[in-house]
Write a structure and sequence with these properties.
Helix content is 29%, strand content 16%. By secondary structure, it is α/β, with parallel strands linked by helices.
């Protein structure tokens, strides 16, 4: 009997061990993850291998790419890990992966995150990795679809590619605007914007020459038209034909997030690439969050202390200077900081000033809302921003040439805010403007909603009486809050609303000037928020300088109304009120 009892316990332990092993994929020796013909054929879908490359810095992008690719019907794919840590995490998560690392790396070192001085690989190293995949896959008779890790697939593109079997190579374009009115390939004039590293690369195996003739360093490909087709190009001395994918369906960051080109044409693109963004990976990630295209963990959508949002006050007169301004009418002439310059006028500077005033009116409200959210312990949900002028890396007319952007426009947060610096600040957490419209936000958050009406502080004391909570129903509360003298008073008046998940301030914009900071004006340099606000404002670029040595950019200043502070890491100690100074 004793023997049977011990046997039963041993059997149960074995079953539990087996169950635990099945829950998590086993990490095999390093040689098992090298790219082979067998792995390529196993990961290919309809004889096409979809692949990206990631490292420890971009690991979360791999999981986002895989999730959306599956949702788009691309159920088979492969992720190349540039370091051992990424490979280990991908394998443990059940993601098909291979080692794009130097052979001989020990498995033990792969289980630890890389050091703080870890740097992503250079463009040349990335190109060589892609060539290795091309060589292996093409020799196995498989077409290759390579996309950057910061892309999101919305639809399966394989049928579209099948309609262009004459092309040996299909690649996305960085052109500002489409060259056709249809959804076919772009015309030759879009070729100037082609770079082999940008967006989506699709190789169609229709010529054996690709197996033996391709460049060591892809770089910028030389493109020229060929009589074979008005929309195909001969490359590498005409040994292969290239086609440029339409920007309406294979979108860059400016097409999808700024001009909203596919939305205007009522098209659903195949892929979105977060190119032409600001703020590094954080800025790109926030772009996808604003478009509800980023997969965050469940805790991101359920803060225990709740959320705070507000309705942006936006007077029509701030938008008026841009409503009758059409950048396309200027052709390629940028805004110029000199009336004496050809094409320049004082009106150009006035337009930039109007843009800065428009942004400042909104930034001031964000600053006050951040202070209030901190005092209440809530996460700030930002409203959409409006910009009068587009942002780029060189002088322009207010919008990119031929982009047909109508001003003013709803601009991404990274146009105005250094998103990478805000994410480093744990005291004031924030969410994107589309947070409450995201299908991942749970119903318990959306159904627990309260509106706060802020009354200006009366000149004379009013009779005592109820002024706080008027219950609309069990879950929705309508609060009337008189202007508090400090964040602590606001917290005390709203304490009864702590059970409400989302508080929306209706009149915060109009009354924001009445909210006092925790420190007096003479002590503003000691305010803990100031050092953070100094770095938070990004940069508008650019007006064409009128004189040699002048600069054309302007920094957004979150402390524009405060004299006697070191306003940013780029500015000197200011003694006068803010004024428009280019390069400042």
């Amino acid at each position: 009997m004793l023997f049977r009892w011990h046997t039963y316990i041993l059997l149960m332990l074995c079953l539990i061990s087996l169950w635990l092993m099945l829950q998590e994929p086993e990490f095999l020796p390093a040689d098992e993850y090298l790219l082979t013909d067998e792995l390529v054929l196993r990961a290919a879908m309809d004889r096409t291998l979809a692949v990206i490359f990631v490292d420890a810095v971009t690991l979360d992008w791999a999981f986002n790419w895989v999730a959306h690719s599956k949702r788009a019907g691309m159920t088979k794919h492969l992720v190349g890990a540039r370091d051992g840590y990424s490979l280990y995490k991908l394998v443990k998560a059940g993601v098909p992966a291979f080692a794009a690392v130097t052979e001989g790396t020990s498995v033990e070192s792969w289980k630890s995150p890389p050091s703080n001085d870890f740097e992503s690989q250079s463009a040349d190293e990335i190109a060589r990795e892609r060539i290795q995949v091309l060589d292996t896959a093409l020799k196995a008779g498989v077409d290759v679809l390579i996309s950057d890790s910061d892309t999101v697939w919305l639809k399966n593109p394989l049928r579209y590619f099948a309609n262009h079997v004459s092309a040996d190579l299909l690649v996305s374009s960085a052109a500002h605007a489409p060259t056709t009115n249809d959804t076919g390939l772009e015309l030759p004039e879009a070729g100037f914007a082609f770079r082999s590293y940008s967006g989506v690369l699709t190789w169609a195996l229709t010529a054996m020459t690709w197996q033996v003739h391709y460049p060591v360093d892809l770089g910028v490909l030389y493109v020229r038209a060929t009589p074979a087709s008005s929309r195909l190009f001969g490359i590498f001395e005409d040994v292969a034909l290239l086609g440029l994918l339409p920007v309406t369906l294979f979108c860059g960051g400016h097409h999808y997030f700024v001009t909203k080109l596919p939305q205007q044409r009522q098209l659903e693109p195949f892929v979105v690439h977060t190119s032409f963004t600001f703020g590094g990976l954080q800025g790109r990630r926030h772009r996808l969050r604003e478009a509800t295209l980023w997969e965050d963990p469940p805790e991101y959508y359920n803060n225990p202390m709740g959320y705070l949002t507000f309705e942006m006050d936006l007077p029509p007169e701030l938008l008026l200077p841009f409503e009758n301004y059409y950048p396309d009418e200027r052709a390629s002439r940028p805004l110029t900081n000199a009336a004496s310059e050809e094409g320049g006028s004082t009106d150009d500077v006035a337009l930039v000033r109007a843009h800065m005033d428009l942004v400042w009116h909104q930034v001031k409200q964000i600053r006050r809302a951040a202070q209030l959210a901190y005092g209440l312990g809530r996460v700030l949900i930002l409203p959409p921003l409006m910009c009068g002028l587009d942002r780029w890396w060189f002088p322009h007319a207010g919008a990119l040439p031929e982009s047909h952007l109508r001003l003013p426009f709803s601009c991404p947060l990274d146009h105005v805010v250094n998103v990478q610096f805000w994410e480093e600040e744990p005291r004031v957490r924030f969410r994107e403007h589309s947070f409450l419209a995201n299908p991942r936000t749970p119903a318990r958050v959306l159904e627990s909603f309260g509106t706060v009406h802020v009354k200006p502080r009366p000149a004379a004391p009013e009779p005592e009486g109820p002024k706080d909570v008027a219950v609309m129903n069990r879950r929705h509360i309508d609060n009337v809050l008189e202007m508090p003298s400090s964040v602590e008073n606001a917290h005390r008046q709203l304490r009864e609303s702590q059970a409400i998940k989302v508080l929306r301030f209706k009149e915060l914009g109009q009354a924001s000037e009445d909210f006092a900071w925790e420190t007096n004006e003479e002590d503003v340099g000691k305010d803990p928020f100031n050092r953070w606000f100094e770095r938070l404002g990004s940069t508008w670029c650019c007006i064409k300088p009128g004189l040699r040595g002048q600069l054309g950019h302007v920094h957004y200043d979150f402390l524009r109304d405060r004299i006697g502070t070191n306003h940013s890491q780029w500015k000197i100690f200011r003694q006068d009120p803010w004024d428009l100074h280019f390069g400042d």
